[in-house]
Design goal:
Blueprint: E1 2-3, E2 15-16, E3 20-24, E4 27-33, E5 39-43, H1 54-58, H2 67-83
Antiparallel strand pairs: 1-2, 3-4, 4-5
Length: 88
């Protein structure tokens, strides 16, 4: 069993029977049987299957961003800035 913990997911707080966990599309995904009997997947990070990010725990869920996500955003913005010819 697992619970969907993502605060904006429409099924937040609901519990489902875990069918499997797979790494697809570069991330771990949790699979469960939907109401129509088909397999449904969501990112494992949106469930209680994985250990919560330490920043989320320390910030008592008040932080909107994780450090690794902000660093990746910075890398992407620098790359876009360079492509546009605004190299600083």
């Amino acid at each position: 069993m697992f619970r969907i913990t993502h605060p904006f997911h429409p099924l937040h707080g609901r519990q489902f029977s875990l069918v499997t966990v797979r790494n697809n599309w570069g991330e771990d995904r949790v699979y469960y049987e939907g109401s129509d009997g088909r397999l449904v997947s969501i990112p494992a990070a949106w469930t209680d299957v994985v250990t919560p990010d330490p920043l989320v725990i320390l910030s008592a869920s008040r932080s909107a961003f994780r450090l690794e996500d902000l660093l990746e955003l910075t890398r992407l913005l620098i790359a876009l800035d360079r492509e546009s010819g605004h190299d600083r």
